[in-house]
Specification:
The complex is a heteropentamer of chains A (512), B (206), C (481), D (626) and E (101).
Chain A (H helix, E strand, L loop, with lengths): L4 H7 L4 H7 L5 H25 L8 E9 L4 E7 L1 H20 L7 H20 L3 H10 L1 H11 L4 H34 L6 H4 L6 H18 L8 H8 L2 H9 L4 H13 L1 H27 L4 H22 L2 H32 L10 H4 L1 H14 L6 H16 L1 H7 L1 H17 L16 H19 L2 H20 L11 H7 L3
Chain B lengths: L2 H22 L3 H21 L3 H26 L14 H24 L9 H4 L4 H11 L2 H22 L4 H12 L3 H6 L5 H8 L1
Helix pairs in contact in B: 1-2, 2-3
Chain E lengths: L4 H21 L3 H26 L3 H31 L13
The chains are: A mainly alpha (512), B mainly alpha (206), C mainly alpha (481), D mainly alpha (626), E mainly alpha (101).
């Protein structure tokens, strides 16, 4: 059946909002269930989308396009391909879990759930929209709910963290906006009618200089979100101060909008510039991998540590994207999904521990294993996944990225692979200090995982194992797209100018 | 040397001088009087520019009505003595002087570029002034400019309303009370407090 | 003898209705001192409705220049008039709610409000610089008085500052008129356009005239560096007046600026655009930066309105209809947001003795979720965060600036919006993320909240489906020559 | 049966799952359950072996397709299992010795509160180990490789409340990870060169060599050697092994003696083709092995902790295996591997008995005379010691000394001489352990109780294996095992240099006896005071041996001094510089905003000033044309 | 008439500048306002001069309007100043700085 799946997916979470908004006297428990239910609905709908997704198709599928502001060339243009489909899936998959994980939130529950649902809608929109302005709209719109969640339900320095997150990312997207507008105006000159339609903008013939400037504008916008070193410092604060759900969503999903944007827009619109800047960006990525890992090692706060591990992992993703080999791109997308699962689960499980101990300091913890073996076990699984143990999800992504990169640039790959060692070091070390060692009597009678918590964690573990042992279903839907994109980028020669446009536009191109 | 030149060169410096005088003298009344003189000189200029009607209006409206009103208010409020001693604003005078010179220079260059310093007014202004300046003026005013003329009436109504609202506000008693209430206030204290700080205390007390 | 002028009064029907209503209201106020305010408010709303109706009636008539070329009735004027009516309605209601509880009824408020609106309605239709000048005087004089209307220390001081600087500014404006007249031998806007189109050579005089006009008008819309009065007056004036003038004045004067820059001096586009761009950039940056330090919401909004003016102006570097439409869209969304923001502030500040310091807003989300949500929506729109109208508006104006090739201006605008987010969301954080303190003086009544929900909804709807008005605005963007 | 080889992995895997999730329910039956699983798996492997033997030697290489794992871009990795003499040998060792150790562990862990998890991990380990050895491609091998590393981590840290255990576990995992990464890089090179991870493609089928440049081959094989060195605790990545003894003794026996540590040897042997293409790599292997053998042997002499001593001995034995492989006698390396699996497991488990009987007392200085309390254990240990020391006709002799013999026949004088020295040391340290722990009079309070039959039974089996495995499998260089492995590893070419075999045998026996003699001389009961007080008398010497030439301490110093300091510095940089810039920008904006009152002074005249200034500035656009 | 028009314009510019100068310099609200009046007159002068230059009367009409406006402004302005004086007892604008920052 051909339903407008994508629109449905985007709208699905919103079904809960009117209920929460209208029903002012709703009990907290009910509100939680409404939120959870809505996210589940979204997940089910996305499964439907997945069923209608044609394996082996490279291009956009399930496309739905409706004019929105005709005079402004703005349209409700959605489409999904091998890249975005999995990001959508991981989003809809992680959200119910994240909502369930925040069951313990006890003030302003109604508002909390409403914001959460809105956030999911916006994120899905960002992953699905093929109209640049529509994308940018969603891309910007997800800032405020996140800001709100961190700022209202976060811990001590929440407002500082929230503001920093918001301003930093807005700073990035300021450049992105300029870039988008430039393309829009340029499309007006070249195609007659100005438009934000991605597929149309691909047809633009940009002078080399302009293309590079635009690439940078887009790249900065996404690099902050990723975050690419050295634009990462908002991440630890936001992660640390956010409530568990916030951290989970932030780590598992929000960060992915950055690399996704690079993959979807930078590579598609500016292949030449992508080639031109690839080396520099790969270098940054590798620096990020090693740097993030080393700094993570030194953190005294578990959540900060996990945050910095994210910096390291995201570096790997960027590396994979800009290696331009089909394997590495597959790996990068896999890694987006996997990092979402593993880091998400790390935050999840640690959040459960935090609910019991109310401390994030490594020094305060210790000897948890004996008290709560199951919780520790869950943490171990997440940890092993995150350090890329074969048989668990992360390995597949890491392996493919490194493999693909190695075939392109052996040196960088060999440096990047240090991340594999370093991740083992900081993870195991922190595990040893927090969970192992003699049991402290103050943690003497912590309750072990409750059934609810077990039920939250179990699905992730299952998926992790599934991806780790049988990633084929994902990869085979991924491959055509990544092959197409890498083909498109590889065929372009650096410095080979597409036939130049009018002087004026060239000059303007050099301006942003 | 033709007459109009002589007149110009007599009254132009005078006009500038009176303007300066208006600025520099301490006493407000004197300043007002300087301004009156200045307005006279400008009226003379109108005469030179073949605008006899405006010459008259200038004298009647400005030198007559407006300046009298000024003087009246000055007397009423008894603020004729110069500025009360208070801290000077740093660098205000110097900057003001520089800016004044600058704007003159800029306008000069613009005028030069626009019409040139040497350009003389073309003859044949009398055609425009058929039937005498006032009549011709009335002609233009009530044909081309009848609508702005109506608008000015609205403007004057608004002005009247404004004066009414501002002047005879609430019953006199309250006003008196307020004046007393504020007579002893240290104004600096206000400066520190946000609007309606101690103010509002008093209002509530009332 | 004089051949009688053509008097097409229908052309200025809205203006006539407004002035007429104003006079009636004035008489009413004079007759019934301290009378019930409610009838006045209702009457005002009725007048505004009538005005809107006449304006709509004008929409479908072909654009003409009437009254000996003094007013031009086109869709730009109609759209602006409609916007003004809406703003006026909210201003009237807020004023009603504000003065209701005041011992000494101030029913002159409605008369003055209508006079101001009349002046504005005239301004947006002005086809001659002298009308521009007179109309601005009408609205200014009314606003001076409105500012002082409660005669407390703050308002009177504000009124004096506003008046002195206003007079100073109108001197510049008049000088601009004079110089333009000198350069083109006419003050008719279209006449200027024709005259300047023909002439070649050094246009210094004409440019000087245009710039002086820009100075005079820039003062009214508080562009840097002619903005200095804004914080003081906005903070000092009674909240409903602030709300009204911050929204209405900008709409009216910017529309006049459209006619001045895009019709009269369109021939000098290439000479004027850089100046416009500079002022716009400076306004965006200075307004945003100075707002950061504010601890009083009214004052903060005042600074923000300075930055907003900068954004509107940034659309003026491109003379085509899209640029104008963008500016109009921005003005409308801004008007809705700012009138709402000041309205909520008024409700929170506790009546005549306005207390708008940050401490009043701490933890408001807990105490008054309704008010807090409203204010949040308005602030988000002002900050330009989707899905609110402010976001779309920013994209439009910056796009317009880009289409004229002023990419540096676009970048500055985009970055300044980051600063904007900083201080707007600071208030949001104050309300949502902190614990309440001090006693709660916020207005308990529900009606004003419902009324203010209207602009909130408008802001969101325009943010999600801007398409509903954009075509109309592009219609309005077509200027008569 | 051979096609069901997958079961050999599946069964323990399943059992592991059950044990880990429902271990609590199983309670003390967990052990039996796990052991049963291992025995079943052993049966499967045995069946496969029989099938294999029933085939003609030529096509004794059977690939069982299981599933496709990763396919991305051009990369396709399928999970195929390979059954050939080499893999089946390893599998036999893993399952056989594994089953026995499981059985033993039932008794050993009887007092542990969470047997479920323990046996779960053990089963999981066996599953991974089998995956490692049965893999038909490098990626599955890598999966097993990392998997066994994980299990070793979990099992070393099983008593995680003991800080030293936790630390040792972490150390083991990270150190081996260094090796793993090299292996991974090796795999990447393999991929970039062959475009496949399949053994058949990479290593060439029967007789056919893969076409590959020497340089590449060297790169690959050295990187793989790096991996092997990490897993097999050879120089320089050996530091984790001694600490790993903090784990339960069955773990030490199974993972750190019999199976996992031999994975390195297996890897080298499996990929010997590549090593041979570049002789360099082969030589490096030999050197590493020899160095390890000597180094570890001497280090073992310095240990008073019985298990640490055994750990070093394991390392030295592995050294011999690498030496063998390096010299090209892969079959011999394998047979030593098998024999070593038996006797080293035996030795560990007997020492486990001691710990069990003396509540974890393991320091030989506080043991002695144990043969009175636990005669059987003593006897078994003696058996293991004899096997290790290499006296004929026990397995050590037929394996270790064969290596030396062949070396000398090939004229590798250095290898022979140094190897013999290593043999001497081996005899010395194992005898030392026996004398100090079991002979003489008690140096401990109370009485040690002999271990339970469930623990003794497997030991007996192991002892038999330890003593006679050599005789059965490798009585001659071309012994059964070698011939069995020939299709995979090729024949053993024997040189004819140097003295004749008889002479060499004599020499080796003498050497061994000499070693034992020295041990007796130094550690016989009457000498107790002397050797116990040895550290006081010879602190330098004792320190060097006891700290294994301070290599570990050197690493520790580097890590703490360089690593942690540098990391701390980087963290500081991140906090103050990178983040400092960000916050700095924010502060700048706020500061600038703070200037507002200076400008917005509230003075009308100031406002007018700024207004006029603005006007003047703007008019510049009129007079100065841009 | 021989005097170049530009002279009148220059005079008007000078007077305009002096007017604004007095706005900037005096602290008495009334005298500031006088400065504004001077500015308006200066502008009128320009208007009249231009009207002479262009040989048409529109300029004079504009000047006439500006006088009316000036009158209106004076009324309102003086009323406001008086109101302020009633409130604070001074017309010194520098004292009126409650609102600032």
């Amino acid at each position: 059946m051909d339903l407008p799946w994508l629109t449905l997916v985007i709208v699905a979470p919103l079904v809960g909002v009117p209920v929460l908004a209208a029903w002012r006297t709703i009990s907290d428990e009910a509100a939680r269930w409404v939120g959870f239910g809505a996210t589940l609905v979204a997940f089910v709908v996305s499964l439907g989308m997945l069923l209608d997704f044609e394996t082996g198709e490279a291009g956009f599928q399930l496309v739905s396009k409706h004019p929105w502001v005709e005079s402004a060339g703005l349209s409700w243009f959605l489409g999904v391909d091998g890249f975005s489909v999995w990001l959508v899936m991981v989003t809809t998959f992680m959200f119910p879990i994240a909502v369930a994980a925040s069951w313990r939130i006890d003030h302003q529950v109604r508002r909390y759930m409403a914001v959460a649902l809105f956030l999911e809608t916006v994120i899905l929109g960002a992953f699905l929209s093929l109209d640049l302005l529509l994308f940018f709209l969603f891309f910007e719109a997800l800032l405020f709910p996140m800001y709100y969640i961190v700022g209202v339900w976060g811990s001590k320095r929440r407002i500082y963290a929230a503001t920093k997150f918001l301003l930093y990312t807005m700073f990035g997207s300021a450049f992105l906006l300029v870039g988008i507008l430039w393309l829009y105006i340029e499309s007006g000159k070249q195609l007659g009618a100005a438009t934000f339609d991605l597929t149309a903008l691909e047809q633009l013939q940009l002078p080399t200089g302009a293309g590079r400037w635009l690439f940078l504008a887009f790249f900065i916008g996404f690099a902050v979100k990723v975050p690419v070193w050295p634009l990462h410092t908002w991440l630890p604060d936001a992660h640390t101060e956010a409530p568990t759900k916030g951290s989970v969503v932030l780590a598992a999903i929000l960060l992915k909008t950055g690399p996704y944007g690079m993959l979807r827009f930078n590579l598609d619109l500016f292949p030449e510039a992508s080639r031109f800047f690839a080396d520099a960006i790969m270098l940054l990525a590798v620096v990020g991998i090693v740097y993030g890992a080393i700094v993570a090692m030194m953190q005294s706060d578990i959540k900060r540590l996990i945050a910095y591990s994210s910096v390291s992992h995201m570096g790997l993703i960027v590396l994979g994207i800009f290696a331009f080999s089909a394997e590495s791109m597959d790996g990068a997308v896999m890694q987006m999904v996997n990092h979402g699962l593993s880091t998400g689960m790390l935050f999840l499980v640690f959040g459960m521990l935090y609910e019991r101990t109310h401390t994030r300091e490594i020094a305060d913890l210790g000897g948890i294993v004996q008290v709560t073996p199951w919780l520790a076990g869950a943490y171990v699984v997440a940890m092993l996944s995150s350090i890329g143990l074969p048989g668990l999800n992360n390995f597949v992504g890491e392996f493919l990225v490194l493999l693909g990169t190695f075939s392109v640039d052996r040196v960088l790959a060999s440096i990047a692979i240090l991340g594999v060692i370093l991740s083992a070091i900081y993870m195991l070390w922190s595990y040893q200090r927090t969970f192992q060692g003699p049991a402290k009597e103050r943690w003497g009678r912590l309750p072990d995982l409750s059934w609810r918590e077990g039920a939250i964690v179990a699905p992730i573990v299952v998926v992790m194992l599934w991806i780790g042992l049988h990633p084929a279903p994902i990869l085979e839907r991924l491959r055509p797209t990544s092959e197409q994109v890498s083909e498109r980028v590889r065929t372009v020669q650096v410095g080979e100018a597409v036939e130049p446009l009018t002087e004026a536009s060239g000059a303007e191109g050099a301006e942003p | 040397m033709p007459l109009d030149n002589v007149v110009f060169w007599v009254f132009a410096p005078l006009s500038v001088a009176t303007a300066i005088g208006m600025i520099v003298v301490r006493n407000a009344v004197h300043a007002a009087l300087f301004l009156v003189v200045n307005f006279f000189t400008i009226a003379v200029m109108y005469l030179l520019l073949d605008a006899p009607f405006l010459f008259a209006v200038q004298i009647v409206v400005y030198a007559g009505a407006i300046m009298v009103l000024f003087l009246f208010v000055i007397m009423l409020l008894g603020v004729d003595r110069g500025d009360a001693p208070g801290e000077r604003l740093f660098g205000q005078r110097a900057t003001a002087a520089i800016l004044a010179v600058a704007i003159v220079a800029e306008m000069a260059t613009a005028i030069r570029a626009g019409i040139g310093f040497a350009t003389r007014a073309p003859e044949g202004f009398d055609e425009a002034n058929q039937g005498g300046n006032p009549a011709a003026l009335a002609d233009v005013l009530f044909r081309d400019y009848f609508f702005p003329f109506e608008v000015t009436s609205i403007l004057l109504i608004v002005a009247a309303v404004a004066a009414m609202v501002l002047a005879l506000r609430r019953s006199k008693a309250i006003t008196q009370q307020e004046i007393e209430a504020h007579a002893g206030d240290d104004l600096e204290a206000y400066a520190m407090t946000p609007p309606g700080g101690p103010e509002t205390m008093r209002e509530r007390a009332r | 003898m004089i051949d009688p002028p053509r008097v097409e009064l229908w052309a200025i029907l809205p203006v006539l209705v407004l002035f007429g209503g104003a006079l009636v209201a004035l008489l009413g106020a004079a007759v019934t001192r301290r009378g019930e305010p409610a009838p006045f408010a209702l009457f005002t709303l009725a007048v505004l409705a009538a005005t809107a109706a006449t304006a709509l009636w004008l929409w479908n008539r072909d654009p003409v220049t009437a009254l000996e070329g003094m007013v031009s009735v086109d869709r730009l004027a109609v759209v602006a008039t409609l916007a003004l009516c809406g703003i006026g309605a909210f201003g009237a209601y807020l004023g009603y709610h504000y003065f209701e509880r005041d011992a000494s009824r101030r029913n002159e408020f409605y008369a003055l409000l209508l006079f101001a609106l009349g002046g504005m309605a005239l301004l947006v239709a002005a086809a001659d610089l002298i009308i521009v000048f007179l109309a601005i005087e009408v609205l200014s004089l009314s606003l001076y008085v409105l500012t002082a209307l409660t005669f407390r220390r703050g308002p009177t001081e504000a009124a004096m500052k506003y008046f002195l600087l206003g007079a100073f500014a109108s001197a510049f404006l008049l000088y601009g008129v004079a110089i333009s007249y000198g350069a083109a031998a006419t003050t008719s806007i279209q006449g200027l356009a024709r005259a300047l189109a023909g002439t070649t050579g050094d246009q210094a005089l004409a440019i000087a005239g245009a710039l002086l006009l820009l100075v005079g008008l820039g003062f009214k819309v508080s562009l840097v560096p002619f903005h200095m009065w804004t914080p003081d007056v906005y903070q000092g004036a009674p909240s409903p007046v602030t709300a009204f003038m911050s929204a209405a004045t900008k709409v009216a004067v910017f529309v006049a600026l459209v006619r001045v820059l895009h019709v009269a001096f369109v021939g000098l586009q290439w000479d004027l655009a850089p100046a416009v761009a500079t002022v716009s950039a400076v306004s965006m940056v200075v307004g945003s930066v100075l707002a950061i330090a504010q601890r009083d919401v009214k004052r903060l909004l005042a600074y923000s309105s300075i930055a907003q003016a900068g954004y509107v102006l940034s659309a003026f570097v491109s003379p085509d209809r899209d640029g104008i439409a963008a500016a109009l869209f921005y003005l409308i969304s801004y008007a809705a947001a700012v009138i709402g923001a000041f309205g909520v502030t008024m409700l929170i500040s506790g009546g005549i003795d306005e207390q708008t310091g940050f401490e009043r807003f701490r933890g408001l989300g807990r105490r008054r979720p309704g008010l807090a949500t409203l204010l949040t929506v308005f602030l988000l729109s002002l900050a330009g965060i989707p899905p609110t109208a402010g976001f779309v508006a920013k994209v439009f104006v910056l796009g317009a600036a880009g289409s004229a090739g002023y990419w540096s201006l676009v970048l500055i605008g985009a970055l300044a919006s980051v600063l904007g987010a900083f201080y707007y969301l600071r208030v949001v954080a104050l309300m949502a993320m902190r614990e309440p303190e001090g006693e709660d003086v916020a207005d308990p009544s529900a009606v004003p909240r419902l009324v203010l929900a209207v602009p909130a909804v408008a802001v969101v709807v325009l943010g999600i489906v801007p398409g509903v008005i954009v075509p109309l605005l592009r219609e309005a963007g077509v200027l008569t020559w | 049966m051979i096609d069901l080889i997958g079961l050999a992995i599946a069964i323990p895997l399943l059992a592991a799952g059950v044990n880990m999730l429902a271990g609590v329910r199983l309670g003390r039956y967990a052990g039996w359950f796990a052991t049963a699983a291992m025995v079943a798996s052993f049966a499967v492997v045995l069946g496969a072996l029989l099938d294999l033997l029933s085939m003609p030697a030529a096509e004794r290489s059977h690939v069982v397709a299981a599933a496709e794992w990763i396919r991305a871009g051009a990369a396709t990795v399928s999970i195929d299992l390979r059954v050939d003499p080499l893999s089946i040998t390893m599998a036999m060792v893993v399952t056989g010795v594994g089953s026995l150790i499981h059985l033993y562990a039932i008794g050993y862990m009887e007092h542990d509160p969470r047997p479920g998890r323990f046996f779960g991990y053990m089963n999981l380990f066996c599953a991974f180990m089998l995956a490692l050895v049965l893999a038909n491609d490098f990626l599955l091998l890598y999966l097993g490789w990392e998997g066994v590393g994980l299990c070793s981590y979990l099992l070393i840290g099983f008593w995680s409340d003991r800080p030293e255990a936790a630390r040792a576990a972490k150390k083991a995992f990270i150190t081996t990870r260094v090796g793993d990464v090299m292996l991974l890089l090796g795999l990447f090179v393999v991929w970039t060169h062959f475009g496949s991870f399949d053994f058949d493609t990479v290593l060439g089928g029967e007789g056919t060599l893969p076409e590959i440049a020497t340089g590449t081959a060297t790169a690959i094989s050295l990187l793989m050697l790096g991996g092997a060195v990490g897993k097999s605790a050879q120089l320089p990545l050996h530091v984790w092994l001694p600490d790993a003894m903090a784990g339960p003794t069955p773990v030490s026996a199974l993972i750190h003696a019999a199976t996992m540590v031999t994975a390195g040897v297996y890897l080298v042997v499996r990929t010997h083709v590549l090593f041979e293409i570049s002789e360099v790599a082969l030589t490096v292997v030999a050197v590493v092995g020899l160095a390890g053998a000597l180094y570890a042997g001497f280090a073992s002499l310095g240990q008073y902790d019985m298990k640490r001593a055994l750990a070093y001995s394991t390392m030295s034995q592995l050294g011999f295996m690498f030496l063998a492989a390096g010299l090209g006698y892969y079959a011999i390396a394998m047979s030593l591997l098998v024999a070593h699996a038996f006797y080293k497991a035996l030795l560990f488990l007997t020492s486990g008995n001691v710990m069990h009987g003396l509540h974890d007392e393991i320091d030989v200085r506080r043991l002695g005379g144990l043969r009175r309390d636990m005669p059987l254990t003593a006897a078994l240990f003696a058996g293991g010691a004899l096997a290790l020391s290499g006296l004929p006709p026990f397995s050590g002799f037929f394996t270790k000394d064969t290596i030396l013999e062949l070396a000398s026949h090939d004229g590798d004088v250095y290898a022979y001489v140094l190897g013999s020295l290593g043999a001497l040391v081996s005899a010395w340290y194992v005898a030392r352990l026996f004398f100090t722990a079991f002979i003489g009079d008690r140096r401990y309070e109370g009485r040690a109780h002999e271990a339970s039959p469930v623990m003794q039974a497997p030991l007996v089996v192991l002892a038999i294996g330890a003593l006679f495995a050599g005789l059965v499998l490798a009585a001659t260089p071309e012994g059964r095992l070698a011939t069995f492995l020939e299709p995979v590893l090729g024949p053993i070419v024997e040189g004819h240099a140097g003295p004749s075999t008889g002479v060499l045998v004599a020499i080796s026996v003498v050497v061994t006896l000499l070693g034992i003699g020295i041990a007796w001389r130094l550690y016989r009961p009457s000498q107790v005071e002397r050797w116990v007080s040895f550290p006081e008398r010879e602190p330098g010497m004792a320190g060097v041996l006891g700290h294994a030439f301070y290599l570990d301490d050197l690493y520790a110093w580097i890590v703490s001094a360089v690593g942690l300091r540098g990391a701390a510095a980087l963290e500081w940089f991140d906090r103050t510089v990178v983040d400092g810039v960000v916050n700095g920008v924010g502060r700048l904006a706020v500061w600038a905003a703070g200037l507002a009152p200076i400008w917005q002074s509230g003075k009308v005249r100031r406002y007018a000033l700024s207004f006029l200034a603005g006007g003047v500035a703007l008019l510049v656009f009129a007079v100065v044309r841009v | 008439m021989r005097t170049p028009i530009a002279y009148f314009l220059l005079l008007s510019a000078i007077l305009f500048a002096l007017g604004s100068a007095s706005v900037l310099l005096r602290r008495n609200a009334l005298r500031i306002f006088m400065g504004v009046e001077l500015q308006l007159n200066a502008v009128n002068l320009s208007l009249v001069a231009f009207s002479r230059l262009h040989l048409e009367l529109d300029g004079q009409v504009l000047a006439f309007f500006s006088m009316v406006v000036a009158a209106a402004e004076v009324v309102v302005g003086l009323a406001i100043i008086v109101a302020v004086f009633r409130r604070t007892g001074t017309t010194d604008v520098d004292r009126a700085d409650v609102l600032r920052g």
